Amino acid sequence: MFAQVIGQTETKRHLLEEARAGRLPHALMLCGPAGSGKLALAISLAQWLLCRQPAEGDACGECPACRLSMRFAHPDLHFVFPVARCKTAEHSVSDTYLDAWRKRLENGLYFDLEDWTADMGGTGGQPLIYAAEAAQIGRKLALKPAMGGRKVMVIWLPERMNAECANKLLKLLEEPPEKTHFLMASNEPEKILPTILSRTQCIEVKGVETADMAAALAQTCPGRDTATAIRAARGNFTAALKLLDTRRDQGLFLDLFIMLMRLAYQRKAKDLRRWSEQMAAMGRERQKDFLDYCQRMTRESFAYNFRLPALCGMTAEEEAFTRNFARFVNERNVQSIMEELETAQRDIGQNVNAKFVFFDLALKMAVLLIQ
Length: 371
Hints:
17 helices, Rossmann fold, about 50% helix, 5-stranded parallel beta sheet
């Protein structure tokens, strides 16, 4: 239901206008930053398309189709998402994890790949959309709609398709089955096969507005001080939820960031090697999230030097460390530090040996922090 989408008023209005006028393309790509609600928009639009009596602003929520859609069990509503690789190729498909996926959606439509990886058992590998998925999609869409209306295929993070799957999906997009809609939600459309992008209509989804996020967090986390989390999240509602959840990795990430910077400044190579081994023991998605966190803390530390509270988006614990650390992040090294963190994140994404990546990063921090 569109009522579950936080903010995005203009995007919702545009999607509904196109749907009511019959102008909705057979393949729609919702692109934008993580945590902006692209998956929530895609699922809400799918529910509207499958509703028997859709209202002007939302699905009715009462017809048999809506009741099934709201449990994510409508026979004509299909999902594709990144999965952990199974021992056999035929099991490396979304249907293998469908029960866990439905439970995740029932808990809320705002989550990230780290959350989903944990739901699948915290695999150390990177979840992908494998070639076997394309065959599954073809079989599902070749069937007539079970309830006589449309068929909708929601694809979360299509940039996670491997090349073989993407090429097979391309054929379906070129000659789509009748009464079928592909709704895709992408954080990084630049990583998608260009020929797939060319056959979709892309709609940019911006980050969640501050006022909308504040209203949603007031309902989700009543009585909590959300101002710092909202500033730090920068339009990412999922990130805001994580910042407010002290059980998440934020405390661990801060400790690891502090350890890295202190050991790098002290040039303790043996301790830095042990730190890199500790980092290598994490799953790759958590490693990438940590490097995201390091980039945020680097930006916050540089901004702290301007002594403008409005620029600060840190928690009290983060600010306590940054108060003394910020002077080591300045105009002479901030760009180089960010580039090294981005390179490390790219290398982790390409399955480079994590011990080498993090030890190399640590040694380069030891050089950059004294500039």
